[in-house]
Every structure is written in C-alpha cells, then in structure tokens.
Design a protein that fits this description.
Number of strands: 6
CATH class: Alpha Beta
Distance between the termini: 20 Å
Structural class: alpha+beta
Strand content: 25-35%
CATH architecture: 2-Layer Sandwich
Number of domains: 1
Largest sheet: 6 strands, antiparallel
CATH topology: Heat Shock Protein 90
C-alpha cells in the first residue's frame, strides 16, 4: 500500500446512529473501498456490515469472511473503546483487495497507544494466568500479516494484510 492514501472523492462523516458512507477510489488501478465514519458503536457496525457486503465477491469462503469480520471488528471496536473512549471522533477505513491479500488501512484521531505501538502478544502467559479481556490484539496478530503502526500528524495509522482473498476491483 502506498504511504499516503489515494485521492478520494469527498466523503461526509456520519451523524450518531447514521449509516457509514463510503466511496470507491476510481483513480487507483486496483480500486479501494474507502469509508469514513464516527468512532462509535452504531457507526462501526454500519461500516463493518457495508464493508463486508462490498468485500463478499473477494472472500471465497465463510471461514475467510469470518476472519475478516473478526479482525475488522476488533480493530474498529478498539478505536471506539480505547482511542476515543466517551468522545467519538473520525475513523477512516480503506480496504484494497490485491494479489497478496486484503490490504487494510485504518486511521483515527484518538489517543495513541500508551507504549507507542499496538500491544504485542505475550507468549509467556497461558491458561488461568491470562487476564480477563485483552485477547483482541493477540488475535489480530495471529490472523494478519505485515502489521505496521505509526502516529503521524495527530493520527493513529494502522496497516495490515489479510491473506487468501481473491484480488480485483470492487464492482
């Protein structure tokens, strides 16, 4: 994925409870599904539902659809809960199916990660010693590839890739 998002047609942020709105980048050769929405539960659900519907032709199995849904839901819900807390803000989601899998870019203007990076899986903790909750990032790490995070210009920017999807443009 390029370091800067491609040029997009204007997209409005949604009101609380409203549907997420998105565009498809018509200038990029492999097309990007692009969504912008408020970082709150209802808008995340709408963006997730609409993104999965748009991705359906690129996801050849129910298992892969489930994996994409779990990863996107974990990432987006973490933004709502941890980056924004009780004060929702904008979230940007870009999905690009390609020959190496589904490339994902997510950005928000919330609080940065306390350690300056996403939590890393702790392989030393097992069984009853596992804390309540906290399974999201180990799950994300196990299901994705090429995770990259940076804090840039007041935004959290996360990139990763999900393998084994069918490449091509969104219809």
């Amino acid at each position: 994925m390029p370091s800067d998002p491609p040029t997009q047609r204007p997209v409005l942020l949604t009101r609380p409870g409203a549907e997420a709105r998105g565009t498809i980048d018509t200038e990029a050769p492999s097309r990007v599904l692009h969504r912008r929405f408020r970082g709150e539960a209802l808008a995340v659900r709408a963006a997730l539902r609409e993104s999965l519907a748009a991705l359906a032709p690129h996801l050849p199995s129910a298992e892969l659809r489930g994996t994409v849904e779990i990863v996107l839901a974990e990432v987006l819900n973490n933004i709502v809960e941890h980056a924004y807390g009780n004060t929702p803000g904008p979230v940007e989601l870009q999905l690009r199916p390609g020959p190496r899998g589904l490339e994902v870019f997510v950005a928000d203007e919330g609080r940065p990660f306390p350690q300056g990076h996403p939590p890393r899986p702790d392989t030393r903790t097992t069984g009853d010693a596992l804390p309540e909750g906290g399974f999201g990032w180990p799950l994300i790490h196990s299901l994705t590839r090429d995770i990259a995070y940076r804090r840039h210009a007041g935004r959290n920017e996360l990139r990763f890739r999900l393998s084994a999807i069918q490449s091509g443009a969104f219809d």
